[in-house]
Design a protein that fits this description.
By secondary structure, the protein is of the alpha/beta class. The chain folds into two domains: 6-12 and 249-350, Aspartate Aminotransferase, domain 1; 32-246, Aspartate Aminotransferase, domain 2 (3-Layer(aba) Sandwich). It is 41% helix and 15% strand. The protein contains 14 helices and 13 strands. The chain has a seven-stranded mixed β-sheet, with helices on both faces. It has a four-stranded antiparallel β-sheet with strand order 9-10-13-12, covered by helices on one side. Helix 7 links the parallel strand 5 and strand 6 (164-169). Helix 2 (40-52) packs parallel to helix 11 (234-246). The two termini are 22 Å apart. Pfam families: Beta_elim_lyase. It comes from Actinoplanes ianthinogenes. Belongs to the threonine aldolase family. Keywords: Pyridoxal phosphate.
Length: 353
């Protein structure tokens, strides 16, 4: 992938030396490192709070840690240990249920449908919950988002049953175009919002949660208890600030172009694109071939033609089909629909050799 001249999905990996050069280029000659959360960390927190329109934001080294703290806060201020989560949600699938095993909370699933819960489903919960979580977008359902009106009514329903609203916004940055609202209006629906710096923004690592001053004070205390008050974090924080400057303004272009790429991919023989059109700059592609053969073909194609199509093909429950997640970022912007179709057909030709 690193040796390719063109990439359809993802970004070209860089070496440590190249990454250090990038950070050096954005760091002024007098920039000093942070110490236990001051300096650059404070700057990043203030930047995020401003973008999300909240009184405060708190930096965390990982999103898993940040979300545990947010859900714990909801349990303590409401006195309710149950949390309304989607079974495909990040806390259930990708965080090893840390909210339950480390924080002692338990989950309630308002719906199993491949989307966020509706107002009616939240109202119909048969037990009280401290927090209702909305993952924007719901990654493991195909990076899907609700309509803005549906999200508003669902947030209102959560408050009506006495729960806090938490946005799992690891990819909130790319959700704004589909929802048709700016980041502050989206975060304004919630009592707390989590965002990630290393996904679309391209930071080294790290996350933040945003909300009231009282929530931020609590988050800082529990960040320390979780071992997240690190001595210095300037490489990750500097890369996050760079991502906000460099990548955040380009995300609407990525989202728009993802629709062009998805429509072209859907024309490949046997292809299935979900959702169609994409809600963000990421979506899922199924092709009627075994995952192993697709991964081998992509690698051979990259080695011989220096073109990267899409990797990470996985076996699925759909018989005879494999699935890959497509991420439309800066390298994909110069691909036309014809480029996508022509490259896809040449790749698939290799499956029959």
């Amino acid at each position: 992938m690193r040796g390719c001249e063109r990439l359809l999905s993802g970004v070209r990996p860089v070496t440590v030396r190249e990454r250090l050069a990038e950070l050096t280029a954005v760091a002024g000659p007098e920039l000093m490192p942070d110490y236990y959360g001051d300096g650059l960390v404070t700057e990043l927190e203030e930047r995020v709070a401003g973008l999300l329109g909240t009184p405060a934001a708190v930096h965390f080294p990982t999103g898993t840690m940040a979300q545990q703290v947010a859900l714990r806060y909801g349990a303590e201020v409401t006195g309710r240990r149950a949390v309304a989560l989607h079974p495909l949600g990040h806390q259930e699938v990708h965080e090893r249920r840390a909210y339950a095993d480390l924080t002692g909370l338990r989950s309630v699933h308002p719906t199993t449908a491949p989307r966020n819960p509706t107002a009616a489903e939240i109202t119909a919960l048969d037990e009280p919950v401290g927090t209702v979580v909305f993952e924007l977008p719901l990654r493991d359902a195909g990076f899907v988002l609700p309509a803005w009106a549906d999200l508003v009514s669902a947030a209102e329903a959560a408050r009506a049953v006495g729960a806090r609203v938490h946005l799992d916004g690891a990819r909130l940055w790319e959700s704004a175009p589909y929802l048709g609202r700016d980041l502050a209006e989206i975060a304004g629906l919630a009592d707390s919002t989590y965002v990630s710096f290393y996904k679309t923004l391209g930071g080294l690592s790290g996350a933040a949660v945003a909300g009231t001053e009282a929530f931020a004070a609590y988050a800082r205390a529990w960040r320390h208890r979780h071992g997240g008050q690190l001595f210095q974090q300037w490489p990750a924080v500097l890369s996050a600030l760079d991502g906000l400057d460099r990548e955040l303004p380009r995300i609407p272009d990525y989202v728009r172009h993802a629709r062009t790429v998805a429509a072209a991919l859907a024309k490949l023989p046997g292809a299935i694109v979900v959702p169609q059109p994409p809600h963000t700059n990421q979506f899922r592609l199924w092709l009627p071939h075994p995952a192993g053969r697709l991964n081998e073909a992509v690698l051979t194609f990259a080695e011989q033609e220096r073109v990267w199509f899409a990797g990470g093909w996985q076996h699925t429950e759909l018989p005879g089909h494999a699935m890959a997640e497509i991420s439309v970022l800066a390298p994909a912007l110069d691909w036309s629909a014809d480029d996508v179709i022509e490259t896809g057909l040449r790749l698939l030709d290799r499956m029959h050799c």
